[in-house]
Amino acid sequence: MAVRSSMKLSETMYVWILASGLVLAVVPRSLAGRFLVDENLETARKLPQISPSPSPVLATSPSPSSSSSPQSWVYVVGFGSVLLVVMALTALGIIFLRYKRKPTAVSPWKSGMSGHLQRPFETTVPFLKLSEVESACEDFSNIIGESSETIVYKGTLASGTEVAATRMKVPAANWNLQLELSFRRKVEALARMKHTHLVNLIAYCSEEEPNFVRMLVFEYASNGTVFDHLHKKESEHLDWLMRMRIVMGAAYGLEYMHHELVPAASHLGFDANSIFLTDDYSAKIANFGVMKMAVAKADTRQKGYWFGPRIVGYEDFDGDSDRFGPDFESNLFIFGVFLLEIVTGRPPHDEVTGHSLVEWASEYLADPKMVWYMVDPSLKSYNHDELVALCRIASLCLSPKNRRPTMRRVVFMLAEVLGITPELAAPKSSALLWAQLELEDEF
To answer: What keywords tag this UniProt record (predicted)?
Structure first.
């Protein structure tokens, strides 16, 4: 029980003070005396009489007519005072908590963030600060590619490893939960895809302040794409042996995606434009358009497919469109088109005639003795047996879906004819290996 003391303010007023120094009540002197008598009655009875003269407070016995009303007022005043103290302490506590919990700036896309996005972003790919990527890319001065959704910079890490940094163009104001989830899934999917014949993800960058940024850092293949070398005069010509090595490298890369990756994945836009070449002309498939993993297919028909340019696919013989989401068998069909492109040097679609390469080659593929008419005239030499084998494999890939071979079967047939092992198809030095060693040393 709190200790109280009284102080006489005047002839008619008393003040009760808590031991803490807080004023509890100010009441008339006559009521104060009666309150003391009621609360400390047992104590007063045990106290000896100090003076023969009666105390004006303790000795006075209230009359029946006046005792009820003053005593009720004392209880009302006491209860009200305690209530005021509790309310004051509560208000002070609320003010203290609000002052202690300082407001923090929250990005607009984070409002309503829940579930998967609330957990820390964990991946096996190293994280790079924006300043590190900016330094590697020479203040983002070397632009090597750009689309409506991304911009690509060439850079060099401290070890001398060349990289391609892809930056998303979406500003912070337009960034939302769906895009953030897509970005994280993209990083998680690419982080586990490590193969000699893929353009591998080396690191990623994700920052809010002072500048909003989302970037993917890939290993860099310096010799451009197969499409450039086949169809652009300013690019270096590919001879037959170089083309066969590229075919085997691309086949090994797709085999990894279809059969070795768990869960397996198909490629969204496989063609000659998606195959990049290293210094020694080894093939590396760019998986910028990799589909959602086989566990649950994503709807890629939505307009906000931001992380890569939309790839126009092909119509296969079953009449199914591969424009938005090719599956594994559709990858086989497109690989067959790629084989014809390698052999003939013709693009998949003739812009002049409007005919497709498959339509043009169909009459030659029907007769093995006629396949030599399809050979790229710029080739000075070629292996006839290999040509016949490639055309036969291409025909199998272009067959109706239920008759197409698996990618593993295609690799077996190609390796048997061409005699190019994974070691011969691989690049002489792995940029990914050196990049990973450098980043691990920094951490």
So the answer is: Membrane, Signal, Transmembrane, Transmembrane helix
Sign of CA pseudo-dihedral 180, 185, 191, 195: negative
Nearest in space to 225 (alpha carbons), one of 163, 280, 313, 286? 286
Q: Give the residues across from 18 on adjacent strands.
A: 4
pLDDT digits (tens, 9 = 90+) for 82-138: 778 778 888 777 776 665 544 444 455 555 445 555 555 667 889 999 999 999 999
Cβ neighbors of 412 (< 8 A, separation 6 or more) are none
Alpha carbons 107 and 407: distance in angstroms, whole number: 45
Tell me the CA distances in angstroms from 287 to 29, 191, 196, 212, 331, one per residue in order: 91, 11, 13, 25, 13
Q: How far is CA 135 from CA 138, 140, 146, 165, 333, in A?
A: 5, 8, 20, 12, 42
pLDDT digits (tens, 9 = 90+) for 330-383: 999 999 999 999 999 999 998 888 889 999 999 899 888 999 999 999 999 999
Look at residues 193, 186, 196 and name the one whose alpha carbon lies nearest to residue 166: 186
Q: What angle do CA 259, 263, 264 make, to 5 degrees?
A: 40
- Helical (H) or strand (E) element with 103: none
CB neighbourhood size of 295 (10 A)? 8
At which residue do the structure tokens 């998986």 appear?
A: 287
The two structure tokens encoding residue 52? 């023969």
What number of residues does the chain have?
Answer: 443
One-letter amino acid for residue 164 of the chain: A
The predicted model scores a pTM of 0.66
Helix (H) or strand (E) holding 69: helix 68-100
Residue whose pair of structure tokens reads 């409002």 in the numeric block: 111
Cα–Cα nearest to 376, from 403, 340, 349: 340
Cα separation, 239 vs 283, in Å, equals: 14
| Proportion of the chain in helix, strand, coil states, percent, rounded to 5 | 45, 15, 45
Tokens read off for 380: 């000075």
Residue 179 to residue 175: CA distance in whole angstroms = 6
Model confidence pLDDT, tens digit, residues 159-216: 788 999 999 998 888 998 888 988 998 898 899 899 999 999 999 999 988 889 999 9
Can you give the C-alpha Rg of the chain in angstroms?
A: 41
